[in-house]
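anyone else get weird line breaks when pasting these?? whatever heres mine. first is seq + tokens for prot A
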Amino acid sequence: MTRRILWFLAVIWLWPVWSMAAPSEQLPFRIGVAPHSSARVIIEMYQPLRHRLEQTLQRPVEIVTAPDFTEFARRGVAQQYDMVITTGHQARLMQTDAGYLPLLTYQADFKAVALVAFDSRFRTPQDLAHSKVIGLSASSLVTLWGQHWLHRNAVPNTTMRYVSASDSVGQLLLKGEGSAGFVSLANFQSLPASVRDQLRVLAESLPMAGRVYVLNQRHAKQQEAMLAALWAFAETAEGKQYFSKYKLGGYRALEPRELVAMDPYANEVRTTLKQGK
């Protein structure tokens, strides 16, 4: 009888804890992916990873993004994502300003490129003077690189038009609505051949920290388990097909100070967020 009473009292005592914990266990694990393409393309691209992590975590997994890179950074810093996949400068910002934990990146080099229409007159940076160029947003790494590239080459009087996705950049260039556009090399290579073949690379960056996976600090105890889950995904048929399709090569560990090198770009995003743009 005494045991039954003690068991009953324990259930009553623990019930509030269970009642609060159960719903949270069913909340989707939110993976925030930087808006390098349209939301439809991003969600489709990461379905193999989502399915694998749902099996591993035994909970729903969502792939989410944001309207632009600035809003994506704002949401990430506000802890709205459980894991983030974004370019190195935003990964560095989320590490320093919001405590996210670096996990890994892709083997393929990440480069930014300046694109022009294949048959256009634009052959040198100076040919872009007094024209409109196209970027993704003020917080996009490829856009920031493009602005630095224009400045280094002393190209005067360009105006920047921001668009929501890389595939839009190519279409606008072909319509003559911009002289040059800045996207990642990977996204350029992923454009439909009918678009890609009508574009030309005017300039290409050195390799930079590309799409980096970082984990929200609230999951710090699961950091090693999450790393193991990602490496396991890389060995599956679906993972290998994903890396091959998007020319990513596979996962690799981050090099020492690789994210630290992104500080100048991260500082620009931080300034943009503080200005409320």
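and prot B, same format (seq, then tokens)
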Amino acid sequence: MQYNNKTVWITGASSGIGKELAIQFAELGARVILSARNVDKLNDLKATLKGGGHLVVPLDLAQPEHVLSTVTVKMSELPAIDILINNGGVSQRSLFLENDFNVYRQLMEVNYFGLIALTKAVLPAMVARRSGSIVSISSVAGKVGSKFRTGYSGSKYAVVGFMDCLRAEVAQHNIHCLTICPGSIKTAIAHNSLNEQGIAQNKPEKSIENGMDVSVAATKMIRAISNKKDEVIIGKGLSGWAPTIKRFFPTLFNRLTAKTNYR
């Protein structure tokens, strides 16, 4: 696929996977719309991107109703969106019995309702043009569960289910829907993960530190978009194989996850 003169909207663009996707899409000639809460980081990124015409649209996915109302109005001011990448999200590292209930609310607002709100605002114009791609970043945790992820995994399972249904509904309108399930990728996701009080834990995690390089992951994601895939799992080692292991050896997988004691 050629990306010259294409517009790609990326949430969670201030760091990690979102930032790397923005860099690579810009290098491919796309116009990139950058969204996240941190405007300074978005503007700094914009200044470094190859090409021109890139835009900064600050969004707080934790306020989905505001996202829906403001973006719906703003759509008339923006170029036609060719690809929407719902990447913004937050993870969790804490036990269910210790979690404040609000932790689950935070995770669902950002990872699920924020994603739905932005998709709801952007999709109608794609349908009217009979062209476009909706890409949502779920997680391997949206395919298999493990300790310390009850809230995160639940929200990411919800994304997988939503995208499966949306794909079926908009196929008649020539809209492509891709669900990406990353495993362990070298980003700040562990540092930003919520603890039992809903506060970022601010510490590293070995599996993330040893994960796939973010530039490699982003390249694979763009390839999946270009090839019009429906769903891909991107990760190395156990994080990439976990869904397959659970599918064919569910009892073994469940025993292993019950014994695992890392966050």
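btw re prot B: DSSP finds ten helices and seven strands in the chain. The first strand starts at residue 7 and ends at 11.
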